[in-house]
Amino acid sequence: MNNPWLWMAPALLLLVALAAFRLLRRRGGAERPLGEDDRFAPVAALSPAEMALLDYLVRAFPGRPVLFRVPLSRLLTVRRAGSRLGAQQRLAALVVDYVVCNRDGRPVYAFELDAVHGDAGQAEQDAREKHRVLKTAGVRLIRLKRSTRYLPRPDEFRRHLRAAALPAQDTPAAEAADPWQSAERARPTPARGAEPPRDAGDTIPMTVTDLMGLHPAVDDDAEPPPDRG
To answer: Which of 52, 139, 144, 148 is a plausible cystine mate for 134, CB 3.0–4.6 Å?
Structure first.
């Protein structure tokens, strides 16, 4: 029992572990403060196509918040999930290109611009997953495949979107109010003879073609005409 290795071995193992920990921290790039001589240069936060669509949505929804590249964790909260932590982590990983909010800052419409996503197949898969998640919160997802050149006038686009608003999903009565805070109206009855949109079953994200197939809602939020009296 007087063998010195019996007490030296644990001490050596501890020293080796501490040395390995410090080495890994250095290799992992531990945070370092910025230097006084560090300099930076601006880069474009948006591409021309992204800026054009952002400007279009701002004109389509004047006075409403329009956000760019937002993780779903900023827009939604987990109401029910098999794994709450897993659902929260997935929400943080999913990002939508644009979001239009109501005056309370709650999301109402989300948009994906396919033209800025390199992998069409991956964009399709991601859009379907985002649609499935957003639908449970009553947020409509619209896929825009090309530039604003192919979109209708902003005011016409807004009227058709209001006809496509999703109903509130399993929310308490206090939260089931119209998402546009009484400025919007419930979906109107389509015009007789009008064909239903291709995603009438609401199983895939709506496209602009689907959207323009809806009978437009009354634009209650439009600016009133000037009084000429």
So the answer is: 139
Name residues whose C-beta falls within 8 Å of residue 204's C-beta, 6 or more positions apart in sequence: 128, 131
pLDDT digits (tens, 9 = 90+) for 58-95: 999 999 999 999 999 999 999 999 999 999 999 999 99
With vertex at residue 11, the alpha carbon angle to CA 5 and CA 12, rounded to the nearest 5 degrees, is 80
Beta strands in 20-154 (DSSP E): 66-71, 95-101, 107-113, 140-144
User: Of the spans 2-6, 23-27, 109-113, 157-161, which averages the highest pLDDT?
Assistant: 109-113
Q: How large is the C-alpha radius of gyration of the chain? A: 26
Q: For residue 195, what are the CA distances in angstroms to 163, 201, 210? A: 14, 13, 10
Nearest in space to 207 (alpha carbons), one of 157, 154, 170: 157
- Its pTM stands at 0.66
Long-range CB pairs of 168-175, under 8 A, 24+ apart, other chains included: 168/138, 169/135, 169/136, 169/137, 169/138, 170/79, 170/136, 171/138
